[in-house]
Amino acid sequence: MTGSIARMALIAAISLILGGCGVFFDEEQTRIPGERISVLSLERQLEPDRRIADLQVRLPPPVNLRSWPLSGGTASHAPQHIAIPNAVNQVWRTNIGEGSDSTMRLLATPIIVNGLAFVMDVESQISALNVANGEIVWTYDLKVPDDDDEAFGGGLAYADGKLFVSTGFADVIALDIESGKEIWRKRLSGPMRAAPTVDDRRVFVITVDNQIFALNALTGEKLWSHAGIAEVAGLLGAASPAVGGGVVIVPYSSGEIFALKVENGRQLWSDNLSSSRRLDALSTLADIRGMPVIDRGLVFAVSHSGRMVAIDIRTGARAWERSIGGVEMPWIAGEFIYVLTNESQLVCLTRRGGRIRWVLDLPRFEDEDDKDAPIKWSGPVLAGDRLLISGSHGEAWSISPYSGEILGREDLSGSVYLPPVVADGTVFFLIEDGDLVAMR
After folding, report:
1. Which of 6, 107, 243, 424 would be a feasible disulfide site paired with 150, CB 3.0-4.6 Å?
2. Which residues pair with 224 in a beta bridge?
3. What pLDDT shows up at residue 78?
4. pLDDT tens for residues 292-325?
5. In the 8-state DSSP scheme, what is residue 51?
6. Rounded to an integer, what distance in angstroms lies between the CA atom of residue 217 and that of residue 148?
7. Within 13 A of 218's CA, how many CA atoms are on the CB side?
8. Dihedral through CA 412, CA 362, CA 73, CA 95, nearest 10?
9. 310 CB contacts (<8 Å, ≥6 apart)?
């Protein structure tokens, strides 16, 4: 059963995934080669709102984020503006195990805590690396069942000295962060493709059959669960829930989004981000693949099928809605939002009203003339007054958050499908071949 679910998810995602110099982040003095082309979104081209053409983008000052313990940086997925040096260079590159291949893909973003970087390869091997030099401190094999050779995915989270692991073979596992020793293991209803979210001694995980489980972080005991509509088809990967203010925001592959009380799972409100417009088979996938964000009383979420919303976390009322489709987490900083769209556009919107301040058309293909080798972009992450994005064509770019101007790019010598991670002045990229790259 697990194998068939994995195959269906992979097939549904293939058409989306197929068709990732100088000092990185230093400002380029010459225009990057390549024609900037106008790209249509699902219904129309996204264009800046003329009514706010003179609005100056102001951001909160950057703050040093000492650790990155969860996917999205924090439980609410709102790290705001992270501090890094003006220029960073590669300081080490370490292979962490088996990388992506034709049947399995790296889905777990690294987490950074206590001077260690934790990563998981496609064969569910966990590695802890010294952030200073990239040396491997310990490894732990999660022991994939012999009858589940297609089990991959899941992710990592840290809290209170424990490393929590969600897996593609339906187990949630807690490990001691110093030694890698297993503390507890809990079997759930199905495999997981997204990382856990941990908050206030509760571990929240979502399974591929659209159920969320809340577990006791100390013992692994099930506290409560909630189920959405089961979906046969979905995109490869999944979104971790967001937690803040006593509420967990649950994104399902059905396009449903729920607000539940963290104590007991009681439903506060629900919404659906599926779009009524259907242009092709792929656009019917309403999957919420980008992680939702909780920020100052609002929930921000975007679905693959073309709907982006801001929702009042108390009432469930929509503050605004835009016809934008994406599979990456929106990044909130001050009064502005940055999001990558399905059409390879990087968009800056106002937090209030969702008005578009600027749009950058990114290359969609490595060969634009022949429309060959589609590029999958990931991110953005706001760090050091730059938006950092990475691509499947093997490059990382830095973009001005104020104007959308391209500032620099770096050759990563390998495809990247996961967004960068930033902690303690270091930027990390997990390459598809299984290499972890650190730049500072």
Report:
1. 6
2. 214
3. 98
4. 999 999 999 999 989 999 999 999 999 999 999 9
5. G
6. 26
7. 2
8. -20
9. 298, 299, 300, 318, 319, 320, 321, 351, 354
**Secondary structure string (H, E, C) spanning 284-336:** HCCCCCCCCEEECCEEEEECCCCCEEEEECCCCCEEEEECCCCCCCCEEECCE
The neighbouring-strand residues paired with 426 are 423
The residue written with tokens 């949630």 in the block is: 172
Q: Are 319 and 298 in contact (CB under 8 A)?
A: yes
Mean pLDDT for the stretch of residues 416-440:
97
pLDDT for res 36: 45
Sole residue written with tokens 């059905």: 254
| Mean per-residue pLDDT of the chain | 89
Nearest to 129 by CA among 160, 91, 100: 91
Question: Which H/E stretch holds residue 3?
Answer: helix 2-17
Helix (H, G, I), strand (E, B) or coil at 282: helix
- What's the number of domains the chain is made of? 1
Q: How many residues make up the chain in this entry?
A: 440
CA 305 to chain centre: 17
**β-pair partners for 395:** 411
What residues make up the domain containing 258? 2-19+22-439
Under DSSP, the state recorded for 75 is T
Higher per-residue confidence, 127 vs 4 = 127
Which of 105, 70, 379, 40 lies closest to 235, judged by CA? 105
State residue 35's pLDDT score: 45
Question: Residue 279 above 70 pLDDT?
Answer: no
Above 70 in pLDDT, residue 170?
Answer: yes
- Predicted local distance difference test score (pLDDT) of residue 235: 62
pLDDT surpassing 60 at residue 172:
yes
194 Cβ neighbours under 8 A, 6+ residues apart: 71, 107, 153, 154, 155, 166, 205, 206, 237, 238, 239, 240
Contact criterion met (CB below 8 Å) for 163 and 156: yes
Mean pLDDT of 34-52: 65
Return the DSSP state at 411: E
Region 390-411: mean pLDDT is 98
pLDDT band at 19 (very low <50, low <70, confident <90, very high): very low
What percent of the residues of the chain are helix, what percent strand, and what percent coil, each to the nearest 5? 5, 40, 55
Contact 335, 355 (CB under 8 A): no
